[in-house]
## 1
Amino acid sequence: NAGVTQTPKFRILKIGQSMTLQCTQDMNHNYMYWYRQDPGMGLKLIYYSVGAGITDKGEVPNGYNVSRSTTEDFPLRLELAAPSQTSVYFCASRGASLTDTQYFGPGTRLTVL
Amino acid sequence: TQLLEQSPQFLSIQEGENLTVYCNSSSVFSSLQWYRQEPGEGPVLLVTVVTGGEVKKLKRLTFQFGDARKDSSLHITAAQPGDTGLYLCAGNNAGNNRKLIWGLGTSLAVNP
């Protein structure tokens, strides 16, 4: 059981470049999330999804886009990368119950120069 | 807007000491979870508390949910270097179960 997988693990982008961070879960979870975590800080929610075809903005959505065409996949798209987007990005998923565990991927460390 | 405040933000202690981390809110939560995040990894669930006044123990870690379900604490007895990490609390509300409300975390360093 792989849980939540993310690719790539590391990436360096130049200002203005674009990229897609991939996230896949094999637990059949309806709820999926993208967070960013700056050094020494907590988690900030970028976007989330409660099922295929349904996405919603979190606290810090500007500069990002998502799609959810299947239950398993929830890619995060960065358009026109900026230095402020340098961060560690975590994808997570969980079931719909109030007490369900939120499972996190290993993270993608992104640097924008 | 529901908020969870964690304190202290940073804590550096010697091996063998005891410590308590707090997670407070002015809002009521249906459940509250504690996660631990080690450097370079994603957070991992430690415990979920649901009932007001509930106490759960996980080896040397004791978790308590406040009677009014607005606050929680994590107590570590005889801390060890392996306890080092970022401790995050997260609240869930039956009125909006779609996303957790996260505290900013307590960064704990246990020195040998």
## 2
Amino acid sequence: DPKIIQKPKYLVAVTGSEKILICEQYLGHNAMYWYRQSAKKPLEFMFSYSYQKLMDNQTASSRFQPQSSKKNHLDLQITALKPDDSATYFCASSQAPSYNQDTQYFGPGTRLLVL
Amino acid sequence: GDSVTQMQGQVTLSEDDFLFINCTYSTTWYPTLFWYVQYPGEGPQLLLKVTTANNKGISRGFEATYDKGTTSFHLQKASVQESDSAVYYCVLGDSGSWQLIFGSGTQLTVMP
């Protein structure tokens, strides 16, 4: 059974619209993260959450807002979508928020295309 | 800032060839280093992890050694198989922040 679920797998949106990317982890982890992988670029860190609190935000734009309704959920709301937001978005989790000594486990990703 | 450099964008080998992927890193801290592997349509998955406490990691026939002197963390495997075809990422886990810093990745293609 998949331990990190991301929904949907594929998403097509129009410029200016808003979408929510869903992430749930069933690993019992306390820290969750979002990364983005754009075409021809390495994965880029976006956010980290620990015990449902924001720990680090490396996303310049306020159009990206993580939302944590439960300890094992970390959704990503993206508003005013732009074509440059087209990418695959990966959710990850780790056992404890120990400043990166912990292994992060990644979900399968949501591929977003903005037209 | 912290960074990871993988110069080889693509590597093509035949089965049973020796694999060597270069990785160098730059940081002011003492990082944990990882190699992640990504198969098509999937998220990255951990291949091996090395901390400052142990200099070498071995997993599934892959091996990486942490060299603080040359700030390198090369990945090698004695004999690759077609199933090893994937993208390999050298990753820096900086002890001073929450993020993983990924290299640009090396696409390994193993021909049968």
